[in-house]
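Researcher: Let's run the pair from yesterday's discussion. Sequence first, then tokens, for each.
Model: Starting with the first of the pair.
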Amino acid sequence: MTPDFLVTHSGGFHADELLSSVVLSRLFPKARIVRSRAPEWITPGADRIIYDVGGAYDAAAQVFDHHQRGAPLRGDGQPYSSFGLVWKHYGRDYLAALSLPQAHIEALHASFDANFVLPIDLMDNGALSPSIAGPLARLTLPSLLETLKPVFDEKDPEAENGSFHAALAIARSFVEARIAQSAAKLRAEALVHQAIVDTGEGRILELPTGMPFRPAIIKAGANHLLFVVHPRDKDWCLTTIRRADEGFEVRADLPAAWAGLTDRDLEAACGVEGASFCHNGRFIAAARTREAALAMAELAVREAVSNGAS
């Protein structure tokens, strides 16, 4: 049955019920969000979904709270927040509602759960502190969403609800953008895989456009690749390949002699007409034509191999 109401608690809001509201309001756009702790609202009924309040976790009754004794845990013992519970039960339908390919839904559901939902669950339950982010602690998504709460001496009785809905719109943007990025990576994977096949044992991977490439390279075990070339707006881009998801170490740097040079200076340094830019960090360069970008890539491969790149 389609609910008429999406019920969560009143008072100060947090990331977990905001993000739960993102999912549920997409699936049930005609349902009204009710923020209340009144018994008549947080009592289960066929016309409502209750989350982050209600004192129970009962999917059949459409109640998804995690504050009670015996609150639900994941299979590995980590705690759920309301967001994790809502994602568990409604996440796949939410992804389908975003018109994502059915073949990608399971992978996206699991990836988003592990990389986005779980950290929210842990922070909401006090199992993970924002302080681990160091100086960026106040810039984590849960912290930023909470800055949208009314200040303590706000007198407008509607301020909390107004702030909640303003924060909901922002939270929705982050969720949908993150999922769109993840979906794009899956689409890119097929294109990159085909380009790897076409490249064979070559060291330079040419792609039809800029796209996420490292996951597909790792998945394919294409350890021989050193550089990637692709068109970019009106020029062509030459990039390195990072060794790990974190950090900046790459399989091979661009030549040191190119660092920080542009246009004629770079053309003189590398001997390639059309070379236009090399970042001082030597991880990206640009050229005005495909031929120039590929020529620069060949020079970069030659130097990298001579310096011991495998």
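Model: Moving on to the second of the pair.
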Amino acid sequence: MPSPKKPVTLWPLAALALLSIIWGYNWVVMKVAISDCPPLLFATLRVWLSVIVLIPLIIWLKRPLRMPSARYIIPFGLLQTTGFIGLALWALEYGGAGKTAILVYMMPLWLIVFAWPLLGEKLHGLQWPAVLLALLGLIAILKPWSFDGEWTGSVIALISGILWASSALWQKRYAPPDMDLFNSTLWQTIFGGIGLIVMTLFIDPLTVHWTPVFVGALLYNAIPGTALAYFLWAYALQKLPSGIAGMGTLAAPLIGVVAAWLQLGETPGGWEGVGMVCIFVALALVSWQHLRPREQENAILPTGQE
């Protein structure tokens, strides 16, 4: 028997809208920031500053500080923070903020594809046309018929989204039943941050131009982008049906594309624009299917988004 629907009120929807704006605009913020700092080094700095912000927040909210099982939290941190966040920033070094946002946000599509062999959740309903549209969109963006050597950023962004999906699958399969969102976020960020330190030392030069713009970008990522964002996300999940919460965050990559267009002058080309539209429609189809009560019971919702 389907669970009763949660009433939808104005404040949770406002929280979801603000969250989408924060996450969506952050793609422009990060793109601007890496002009003063190598991308992996910026990822490392933002993650550890986020840890500094999260600890007092968790104490204030009276959430547990004890580390979850290492067998669960360490792989989760490496997938979610080292992989997803690190590679998303790295992709921005080679590609535009808008295109990178769309490619990384293909995560829900990778999720339903991987859930078939790994969790036994077969594709059904609107998921089939969504996957087909996403594939067509990806082909349009990559343009394999006219290779121009600009695949690097797109490939890294795709891997970032795949690792994000993998972290969600790991969370669904191995997360303790009494897992606290804030506690899990803190510890996976710590272990993922350690992984980012290692990656940075091997790949990036340790040089930073501490300009006011860079400092502002770093603070944006740590305070509204992490602390406030997790509070808004937890509040929206508590008050809204999971399908509506997932549908609401769909605005984030669209805001990223529009913001990059207006502020950075990143005008999508013909095929690139077609590809973005195809992928966005595919994401909308997946999110729309999750609005159904039966789908919401088994929904895997992302955490730690940009």
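Researcher: Give me one sentence on the second I can quote.
Model: Residues 10-291 form one domain.
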